[in-house]
Specification:
elongated; transcription cis-regulatory region binding; single chain; Rossmann fold; about 15% strand; 434 Repressor (Amino-terminal Domain); transcription regulation; about 325 residues; 6-stranded parallel β-sheet; HTH_LacI; alpha/beta; DNA-binding transcription factor activity
Length: about 325
């Protein structure tokens, strides 16, 4: 015979408390005496009571779900083997430990941004994280105007940036270039990242600052963080300065393309040209030669994104800008 599903009322009877007390315990309220809380928890366990999430959401106005929005083409997200998986993994681990649910969404077009705005406005999620933004992305500000808690990965290229978690891209790039300078390189070029992204802008700024301090000339070509764009950009730089002897590449994926193109043009790394990347993705250890690079804590970014958003939705104050350090990992390419 099918046993009826336990209800709040049956839990209250077993615990010897009111229905309201059971409701407060289930919804995480701290305004319950410890003795009553223990009685309710014991009754829940004995009866096998499972809260009705839909009903609970009506009471608490919470869904216990959080969105991670990636304003990128799905092809780029799923072909990347380091940044996006690392951020998603970090976010997921942090939310799982808090017993929350992750909702992953793509937002590369105005139509997809509108869809996400409607989804968030309908309160299907308690808050939103936005990572890998391009230009003055309007989505974070639009969500904030709706009263939806938002935390971004990197600052938004607009006058009013929501809270964000990022890394010190300029300092990391300067570390890379200073290492090339100390090794005696004097014609140091860069394959910069997209100039509509904070990472691309700040890493180029760090390159220029380090070269300016050493009174060296800058040579810049721009890629889009893909291997192929790195190969194209280094060929452009070689056409402009055939005697280049150092390259700072604003991402490891582009650096892999740079290494391939240098080999194809007969340049030896590091004997003829030293190469330093940025990110420290797993394949950087296995390139030929292994890639010197600037490590950023990608998993840490994801965990802190989620942690900041959880604090924000709980009504706690958070740092408007949480900037994580980078470190230089020296291998054989430089």
């Amino acid at each position: 015979m099918h046993r009826p599903r336990p209800t709040l009322e049956s839990v209250a009877r077993r615990a010897g408390v009111s229905r309201a007390t059971v409701s407060r315990v289930v919804n995480g309220s701290t305004k319950v005496a410890e003795e009553s809380r223990e009685a309710v928890l014991d009754a829940i366990q004995e009866l096998g009571y499972v809260p009705n999430q839909a009903a609970r959401s009506l009471v608490t106005q919470r869904t216990d779900s959080f969105a991670l929005v990636l304003p990128e083409e799905p092809g780029r997200v799923f072909s990347d083997d380091r940044f996006f998986p690392g951020v998603v993994r970090g976010v997921s681990q942090e939310l799982e430990s808090a017993d929350k649910q992750l909702v992953l969404m793509m937002a590369r077009s105005p139509a997809s941004r509108d869809r996400i705005e409607r989804f968030a406005l309908a309160r299907h999620v308690d808050g939103v994280m936005v990572a890998s933004m391009h230009g003055a992305d309007p989505l974070p500000a639009a969500l904030a105007r709706m009263g939806i808690p938002v935390v971004c990965n990197e600052r938004v290229l607009s006058p009013a940036s929501p809270p964000y978690v990022g890394v010190d891209n300029a300092a990391g790039a300067a570390l890379a270039v200073e290492h090339l300078i100390r090794s005696g390189r004097t014609r140091i070029t860069t394959v910069a990242g997209p100039q509509d992204m904070v990472a691309g802008i700040d890493r180029l700024s760090g390159y220029r600052t380090a070269l300016s301090g050493a009174r060296l000339q800058a040579y810049v070509a721009v890629g889009d963080f893909t291997q192929e764009s790195g190969a194209v950009a280094i060929r452009e730089l070689l056409d402009r300065e055939p005697r280049l002897d150092g390259v700072f590449v604003a991402s490891d994926l582009m650096a892999i393309g740079v290494l391939r193109a240098l080999r194809q043009t007969g340049r030896r790394v590091p004997e003829d040209v030293s190469v330093v990347g940025f990110d420290d993705i797993e394949p950087a250890r296995y390139t030929e030669p292994p890639l010197t690079t600037v490590r950023q804590p990608i998993g840490g970014i994801g965990r802190r994104l989620a942690r900041q958003l959880l604090r924000l939705t709980a009504g706690e104050s958070i740092e408007p800008a949480l900037v994580l350090p980078t470190e230089l990992v020296i291998r054989e390419s430089a």
